[in-house]
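Bug #77: duplicate submission created two jobs. Keeping one. Sequence:
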Amino acid sequence: MPLREQTLVVEAITGLRGRLPFPLLGLDTDNDSAFLNDTLFAYCSNYSIEFTRSRAYQKNDQAWVEQKNGAIVRKLIGYGRLEGLTATAAWRRLYECSRLYINFFQPSFKLKAKHREGARAHKSYHLPVTPCGRLMERDDVPPDTKEMLRQRMEELDPVLLLKQIREAQDTVTALMQNRTPETVAPDVAAFVSSLATAWRAGEVQPTHRRAPKPGRWWRSRKDPFAEVWPVLLGWLEERPDMEAKQMLKRLQGSGYGEFPDGQLRTLQRRVRLWRMRIVQQLVYGTGETAAQDEGISEPMTQKSSAG
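Kept job's structure:
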Protein backbone atom coordinates (compact mmCIF):
# COMPACT_ATOMS: atom_id res chain seq x y z
CA MET A 1 0.00 0.00 0.00
CA PRO A 2 1.24 3.56 -0.68
CA LEU A 3 0.45 4.51 2.91
CA ARG A 4 -0.81 3.01 6.17
CA GLU A 5 -4.48 3.99 6.42
CA GLN A 6 -7.42 2.03 7.82
CA THR A 7 -9.83 2.68 4.91
CA LEU A 8 -7.28 1.31 2.43
CA VAL A 9 -7.00 -1.85 4.53
CA VAL A 10 -10.77 -2.31 4.28
CA GLU A 11 -10.68 -1.82 0.50
CA ALA A 12 -7.87 -4.37 0.19
CA ILE A 13 -9.83 -6.93 2.22
CA THR A 14 -12.91 -6.31 0.07
CA GLY A 15 -10.92 -7.00 -3.08
CA LEU A 16 -9.38 -10.07 -1.47
CA ARG A 17 -12.77 -11.53 -0.63
CA GLY A 18 -13.81 -11.27 -4.27
CA ARG A 19 -10.79 -13.30 -5.39
CA LEU A 20 -10.83 -16.05 -2.77
CA PRO A 21 -12.33 -19.37 -3.94
CA PHE A 22 -13.89 -19.76 -0.47
CA PRO A 23 -15.64 -17.39 1.94
CA LEU A 24 -13.56 -15.38 4.39
CA LEU A 25 -14.68 -16.53 7.86
CA GLY A 26 -11.95 -15.09 10.08
CA LEU A 27 -9.25 -12.43 10.12
CA ASP A 28 -6.28 -12.46 12.50
CA THR A 29 -3.93 -9.47 12.51
CA ASP A 30 -1.06 -8.08 14.50
CA ASN A 31 -1.40 -5.10 16.82
CA ASP A 32 -0.69 -2.40 14.26
CA SER A 33 -2.98 0.62 14.37
CA ALA A 34 -3.78 0.14 10.68
CA PHE A 35 -5.68 -3.02 11.69
CA LEU A 36 -6.81 -2.36 15.25
CA ASN A 37 -9.31 0.41 14.60
CA ASP A 38 -13.06 1.02 14.56
CA THR A 39 -13.27 0.97 10.75
CA LEU A 40 -11.97 -2.57 10.33
CA PHE A 41 -13.79 -3.82 13.42
CA ALA A 42 -17.13 -2.49 12.09
CA TYR A 43 -16.44 -3.99 8.66
CA CYS A 44 -15.82 -7.45 10.12
CA SER A 45 -18.93 -7.18 12.29
CA ASN A 46 -21.13 -6.26 9.31
CA TYR A 47 -19.94 -9.22 7.22
CA SER A 48 -19.80 -11.78 10.08
CA ILE A 49 -16.02 -12.11 9.93
CA GLU A 50 -14.42 -13.25 13.17
CA PHE A 51 -11.80 -10.63 13.99
CA THR A 52 -8.95 -11.64 16.33
CA ARG A 53 -5.54 -10.24 17.07
CA SER A 54 -2.26 -11.61 18.33
CA ARG A 55 -1.19 -11.21 21.91
CA ALA A 56 1.08 -8.31 22.69
CA TYR A 57 4.81 -9.18 22.64
CA GLN A 58 4.02 -12.73 21.43
CA LYS A 59 5.40 -12.81 17.90
CA ASN A 60 4.88 -16.56 17.55
CA ASP A 61 1.12 -15.98 17.44
CA GLN A 62 1.62 -14.98 13.79
CA ALA A 63 4.03 -17.80 12.93
CA TRP A 64 1.81 -19.40 10.28
CA VAL A 65 1.47 -16.08 8.45
CA GLU A 66 4.85 -14.53 9.06
CA GLN A 67 6.72 -17.59 7.75
CA LYS A 68 5.66 -16.60 4.24
CA ASN A 69 7.52 -13.30 4.59
CA GLY A 70 10.81 -15.11 4.28
CA ALA A 71 9.72 -17.91 1.94
CA ILE A 72 7.92 -15.68 -0.57
CA VAL A 73 7.96 -11.95 0.08
CA ARG A 74 11.67 -11.49 0.80
CA LYS A 75 12.59 -13.91 -1.98
CA LEU A 76 10.71 -11.74 -4.48
CA ILE A 77 10.98 -8.21 -3.14
CA GLY A 78 14.20 -8.30 -1.16
CA TYR A 79 15.07 -5.98 1.71
CA GLY A 80 15.14 -2.59 -0.01
CA ARG A 81 12.75 0.25 0.70
CA LEU A 82 9.93 1.08 -1.70
CA GLU A 83 8.17 4.44 -1.59
CA GLY A 84 5.65 6.25 -3.78
CA LEU A 85 2.89 5.32 -6.20
CA THR A 86 5.32 4.14 -8.91
CA ALA A 87 6.84 1.59 -6.56
CA THR A 88 3.38 0.52 -5.41
CA ALA A 89 2.31 -0.11 -9.01
CA ALA A 90 5.48 -2.13 -9.70
CA TRP A 91 4.95 -4.18 -6.59
CA ARG A 92 1.34 -4.82 -7.59
CA ARG A 93 2.42 -6.15 -10.99
CA LEU A 94 4.89 -8.46 -9.27
CA TYR A 95 2.20 -9.65 -6.87
CA GLU A 96 -0.34 -10.30 -9.65
CA CYS A 97 1.91 -12.73 -11.51
CA SER A 98 3.63 -14.25 -8.47
CA ARG A 99 0.37 -15.16 -6.67
CA LEU A 100 -0.78 -17.14 -9.71
CA TYR A 101 2.56 -18.91 -10.07
CA ILE A 102 2.77 -19.79 -6.37
CA ASN A 103 -0.84 -20.88 -5.91
CA PHE A 104 -1.09 -22.97 -9.09
CA PHE A 105 2.44 -24.19 -9.91
CA GLN A 106 4.67 -24.06 -6.83
CA PRO A 107 4.25 -27.07 -4.52
CA SER A 108 5.13 -26.84 -0.84
CA PHE A 109 5.47 -29.20 2.12
CA LYS A 110 3.06 -29.33 5.03
CA LEU A 111 3.89 -30.79 8.42
CA LYS A 112 2.18 -34.13 9.00
CA ALA A 113 3.41 -35.22 12.43
CA LYS A 114 6.04 -34.31 14.97
CA HIS A 115 7.32 -36.31 17.91
CA ARG A 116 10.26 -35.80 20.22
CA GLU A 117 12.81 -38.35 21.41
CA GLY A 118 14.85 -36.76 24.13
CA ALA A 119 16.34 -33.56 22.77
CA ARG A 120 15.74 -34.50 19.14
CA ALA A 121 12.51 -33.73 17.26
CA HIS A 122 11.40 -35.97 14.38
CA LYS A 123 9.12 -34.48 11.74
CA SER A 124 7.24 -36.08 8.88
CA TYR A 125 5.64 -34.21 6.00
CA HIS A 126 2.89 -34.73 3.48
CA LEU A 127 3.85 -35.02 -0.16
CA PRO A 128 4.44 -31.58 -1.73
CA VAL A 129 1.27 -30.17 -3.25
CA THR A 130 0.37 -26.77 -4.63
CA PRO A 131 -2.16 -24.61 -2.73
CA CYS A 132 -4.62 -25.18 -5.56
CA GLY A 133 -4.11 -28.93 -5.30
CA ARG A 134 -4.94 -28.85 -1.59
CA LEU A 135 -8.24 -27.14 -2.34
CA MET A 136 -9.02 -29.80 -4.92
CA GLU A 137 -8.52 -32.55 -2.33
CA ARG A 138 -10.94 -31.06 0.20
CA ASP A 139 -14.51 -32.39 0.36
CA ASP A 140 -16.00 -29.14 1.68
CA VAL A 141 -15.05 -27.19 -1.46
CA PRO A 142 -18.02 -26.99 -3.90
CA PRO A 143 -17.67 -28.69 -7.30
CA ASP A 144 -18.29 -25.38 -9.06
CA THR A 145 -15.30 -23.84 -7.30
CA LYS A 146 -13.09 -26.80 -8.26
CA GLU A 147 -14.17 -26.51 -11.88
CA MET A 148 -13.41 -22.80 -11.85
CA LEU A 149 -9.92 -23.49 -10.51
CA ARG A 150 -9.29 -26.13 -13.19
CA GLN A 151 -10.26 -23.73 -15.95
CA ARG A 152 -8.11 -20.98 -14.47
CA MET A 153 -5.11 -23.28 -14.30
CA GLU A 154 -5.53 -24.40 -17.92
CA GLU A 155 -5.43 -20.77 -19.02
CA LEU A 156 -2.11 -20.08 -17.32
CA ASP A 157 1.38 -20.55 -18.76
CA PRO A 158 3.98 -21.11 -15.99
CA VAL A 159 6.89 -20.05 -18.22
CA LEU A 160 5.16 -16.80 -19.14
CA LEU A 161 4.37 -16.14 -15.49
CA LEU A 162 8.00 -16.75 -14.56
CA LYS A 163 9.11 -14.30 -17.24
CA GLN A 164 6.71 -11.68 -15.92
CA ILE A 165 8.01 -12.22 -12.40
CA ARG A 166 11.60 -11.65 -13.55
CA GLU A 167 10.65 -8.47 -15.40
CA ALA A 168 8.72 -7.15 -12.41
CA GLN A 169 11.67 -7.94 -10.13
CA ASP A 170 13.98 -5.97 -12.42
CA THR A 171 11.61 -3.00 -12.20
CA VAL A 172 11.43 -3.19 -8.42
CA THR A 173 15.22 -3.44 -8.18
CA ALA A 174 15.66 -0.38 -10.39
CA LEU A 175 13.30 1.63 -8.20
CA MET A 176 15.17 0.54 -5.07
CA GLN A 177 18.42 1.75 -6.62
CA ASN A 178 16.89 5.07 -7.80
CA ARG A 179 17.39 4.40 -11.50
CA THR A 180 15.01 4.30 -14.44
CA PRO A 181 13.62 0.81 -15.19
CA GLU A 182 14.54 -0.61 -18.56
CA THR A 183 11.82 -1.47 -21.07
CA VAL A 184 12.21 -5.07 -22.27
CA ALA A 185 10.45 -6.47 -25.33
CA PRO A 186 8.12 -9.39 -24.54
CA ASP A 187 10.27 -12.06 -26.21
CA VAL A 188 9.23 -15.33 -24.59
CA ALA A 189 11.39 -17.46 -26.92
CA ALA A 190 14.57 -15.67 -25.84
CA PHE A 191 13.61 -16.05 -22.19
CA VAL A 192 12.97 -19.79 -22.60
CA SER A 193 16.30 -20.30 -24.36
CA SER A 194 18.11 -18.48 -21.54
CA LEU A 195 16.72 -20.88 -18.92
CA ALA A 196 19.06 -23.63 -20.14
CA THR A 197 22.13 -21.63 -19.05
CA ALA A 198 20.64 -19.62 -16.17
CA TRP A 199 22.05 -22.05 -13.62
CA ARG A 200 25.60 -20.94 -14.44
CA ALA A 201 24.99 -17.52 -12.91
CA GLY A 202 23.40 -19.01 -9.79
CA GLU A 203 19.97 -18.26 -8.44
CA VAL A 204 18.29 -15.47 -10.37
CA GLN A 205 17.13 -13.05 -7.69
CA PRO A 206 17.88 -9.41 -8.51
CA THR A 207 16.44 -8.28 -5.18
CA HIS A 208 18.96 -10.02 -2.96
CA ARG A 209 20.73 -7.95 -0.35
CA ARG A 210 23.66 -6.01 -1.68
CA ALA A 211 27.01 -7.72 -1.25
CA PRO A 212 29.10 -6.11 1.50
CA LYS A 213 31.92 -3.91 0.28
CA PRO A 214 35.38 -5.47 0.60
CA GLY A 215 37.61 -4.22 3.37
CA ARG A 216 40.02 -1.42 2.48
CA TRP A 217 43.59 -2.68 2.71
CA TRP A 218 45.42 0.37 1.35
CA ARG A 219 46.53 3.39 3.38
CA SER A 220 44.20 6.36 2.94
CA ARG A 221 46.46 9.06 4.37
CA LYS A 222 50.17 9.84 4.53
CA ASP A 223 52.19 7.86 7.06
CA PRO A 224 53.39 10.37 9.71
CA PHE A 225 56.32 8.13 10.74
CA ALA A 226 57.71 7.40 7.27
CA GLU A 227 60.56 9.98 7.47
CA VAL A 228 61.60 9.22 11.06
CA TRP A 229 61.29 5.45 10.81
CA PRO A 230 65.08 4.90 10.47
CA VAL A 231 65.53 6.76 13.76
CA LEU A 232 62.88 4.61 15.41
CA LEU A 233 64.56 1.46 14.08
CA GLY A 234 67.77 2.55 15.78
CA TRP A 235 65.93 2.90 19.07
CA LEU A 236 64.37 -0.53 18.66
CA GLU A 237 67.75 -2.11 17.96
CA GLU A 238 69.08 -0.58 21.17
CA ARG A 239 66.03 -1.56 23.23
CA PRO A 240 63.82 -4.14 21.46
CA ASP A 241 61.48 -4.17 24.45
CA MET A 242 60.75 -0.44 24.24
CA GLU A 243 57.03 0.27 24.10
CA ALA A 244 55.48 2.44 21.42
CA LYS A 245 54.18 4.85 24.03
CA GLN A 246 57.72 5.47 25.31
CA MET A 247 58.96 5.91 21.75
CA LEU A 248 56.29 8.52 21.02
CA LYS A 249 57.16 10.48 24.18
CA ARG A 250 60.83 10.42 23.22
CA LEU A 251 59.99 11.41 19.67
CA GLN A 252 57.90 14.37 20.81
CA GLY A 253 60.82 15.76 22.80
CA SER A 254 63.52 15.06 20.23
CA GLY A 255 62.64 17.86 17.81
CA TYR A 256 62.06 15.67 14.72
CA GLY A 257 58.62 17.16 14.18
CA GLU A 258 55.16 17.40 15.65
CA PHE A 259 53.62 14.06 16.63
CA PRO A 260 50.33 14.39 18.58
CA ASP A 261 49.17 11.77 21.05
CA GLY A 262 46.44 10.65 18.63
CA GLN A 263 49.07 8.99 16.43
CA LEU A 264 49.98 6.44 19.11
CA ARG A 265 47.83 3.71 17.51
CA THR A 266 49.64 4.11 14.19
CA LEU A 267 53.03 3.80 15.88
CA GLN A 268 51.87 0.76 17.85
CA ARG A 269 50.85 -1.01 14.63
CA ARG A 270 54.22 -0.21 13.06
CA VAL A 271 56.13 -1.60 16.03
CA ARG A 272 53.93 -4.70 16.14
CA LEU A 273 54.55 -5.45 12.44
CA TRP A 274 58.31 -4.91 12.93
CA ARG A 275 58.39 -7.40 15.79
CA MET A 276 56.38 -9.92 13.76
CA ARG A 277 58.97 -9.75 10.99
CA ILE A 278 61.79 -10.21 13.46
CA VAL A 279 60.08 -13.32 14.87
CA GLN A 280 59.61 -14.74 11.37
CA GLN A 281 63.28 -14.19 10.61
CA LEU A 282 64.46 -15.83 13.83
CA VAL A 283 62.07 -18.79 13.82
CA TYR A 284 61.49 -19.52 10.12
CA GLY A 285 64.44 -17.76 8.50
CA THR A 286 62.09 -15.60 6.43
CA GLY A 287 61.16 -11.94 6.37
CA GLU A 288 63.13 -8.78 5.77
CA THR A 289 65.71 -7.47 8.20
CA ALA A 290 65.05 -4.46 10.33
CA ALA A 291 67.56 -2.40 8.36
CA GLN A 292 65.65 -3.07 5.12
CA ASP A 293 62.28 -2.21 6.63
CA GLU A 294 61.46 1.17 5.13
CA GLY A 295 57.99 1.75 6.48
CA ILE A 296 56.27 -1.64 6.82
CA SER A 297 55.21 -1.90 3.18
CA GLU A 298 52.93 -4.92 3.57
CA PRO A 299 49.17 -4.32 3.13
CA MET A 300 47.41 -2.64 6.01
CA THR A 301 44.04 -3.76 7.31
CA GLN A 302 41.01 -1.52 7.29
CA LYS A 303 41.59 -0.58 10.93
CA SER A 304 45.30 0.10 10.46
CA SER A 305 44.68 2.57 7.61
CA ALA A 306 43.54 5.27 10.03
CA GLY A 307 46.09 7.58 11.62
